[in-house]
Design a protein that fits this description.
Elements (H helix, E strand, L loop, with lengths): L8 H50 L3 H40 L1
Helix pairs in contact: 1-2
Amino acid sequence: MATQSVKTPEALDALIVASLQARRDTWLRGARRQKMRTLFAYGCSGCIVLFALAAFFLARDPDAGATLVTIALVTLTFSYLAGIASQKKLADSLRQMDQSTK
């Protein structure tokens, strides 16, 4: 694939700015998707807690209820940690991109 040469420095600067903006938009879309995934995992954990309550109170099975609550807590913990890690990664990436453009 042949690339075209850029004739002026202004055109090169415009291409660089467009590329950085596209990369920033991609990272922000990824962050929104990650937030949606995290919220979905929170919802799934809430459903597991409801199943645990049903197992504990309706089926009178404390072992099943305790197991489901444990699964829900593990799911909530990992969802929370993944959400925090993705926010930090996005902030670091944006900070690094801003520093590289200065």
